[in-house]
Design brief:
alpha+beta; D-amino Acid Aminotransferase, Chain A, domain 1; 2 domains; 6 helices; about 30% strand
Length: about 290
């Protein structure tokens, strides 16, 4: 018999098989929502302060009313309670979604919000570097245009879906997105780093990439370990073959190394070092 999975909707624990919304839900109708995805290891949630701060920034930008109860401590307790209810004691992916409450069309009738917490179990108790390198391609159908909302994760994800579909159809593991200048921005759910010798290169936040929490953590770890980091670069497709390594980062998977783009092949030396240092930093935080 399959294990029952529960959700947390506005503090109420409900079975995941039960309907939650009506057709008036604004996240469904207009993508009027923001979310954060991250890992929990047992009851510990690394980098949660950064995720919480990014969520609040997104809510303010969208004109959502932040509930008085929305404190970092409150949300952590809500997540930890759901993990215990689901008996996810080892590791899990957390998705925390906030959406504007129903009412109105493009003009909302209210700016009050609801929240939904979802958890998905994982077996690994640390970030594991992928054994097999990823194959990536370039999504060129249309560019991602920078807006004030670009740095956050929202319910409006059509460009990422289109890129992911192309990757699937082309036999790639992931796809890189471009801006209107044909500069590489990010992957479908990750930031991207390029490595040459002891130098790391990653696109600037100003280009409209998602302001990745793991991106910033990897930059900090790299600097602490004598790497040189350029985090405001513009990289074009013609330069890809000049790099030794490419790797992707996000808060769910940590670091994932890329082995191939077209006929180019890449290594994983730096990705391995930084992945080990990332896990060491988690151990030190939880010590």
């Amino acid at each position: 018999m399959a294990q029952r999975i529960f959700l947390n909707i506005n503090g109420k624990i409900v079975d995941s098989s039960q309907p939650l919304f009506t057709a008036e839900n604004r996240a469904f109708r207009y993508g009027d929502s923001v979310f954060e995805s991250f890992r929990a290891f047992g009851q510990e949630i690394p980098f949660f302060t950064q995720h919480f701060d990014r969520l609040l920034e997104a809510m303010k930008l969208l004109g959502m009313t932040i509930p008085i109860s929305f404190s970092e401590t409150f949300i952590i307790k809500e997540i930890q309670h759901l993990l215990r209810v689901n008996k996810f004691f080892k590791s899990a992916v957390i998705r925390f979604t906030v959406f504007r409450n129903a009412g109105g069309k493009y003009f909302p009738k209210t700016n009050s919000v609801s929240y939904l917490i979802e958890t998905t179990p994982l077996n690994e108790n640390s970030y594991l570097l992928n054994n097999k390198g990823l194959t990536i391609g370039l999504f060129q159908d249309f560019p991602k245009v920078a807006t004030p909302f670009s740095g956050f994760k929202s319910g409006n994800a059509q460009i990422y879906i289109a890129a992911a579909l192309q990757a699937q159809q082309s036999g790639w593991d992931d796809a890189l997105l471009l801006n209107p200048k044909n500069e590489i921005m990010e992957a479908t759910s990750s930031n991207v780093f390029f490595v040459r010798d002891n130098f790391l290169f990653t696109p600037s936040l100003d280009t409209g990439i998602v302001s990745g929490i793991m991106r910033q953590k990897v930059i900090e770890i790299a600097l602490d370990n004598n790497f040189v980091v350029y985090d405001e670069v513009a990289i074009r497709e013609s330069e890809i073959g000049s790099f030794d390594e490419i790797f992707l980062t996000n808060s769910v998977s940590g670091i994932r190394w890329v082995s191939a783009y077209k006929d180019f092949r890449f290594f994983k030396k730096t990705a391995t070092i930084l992945s080990e240092k990332l896990n060491q930093s988690l151990q030190n935080e939880n010590a």
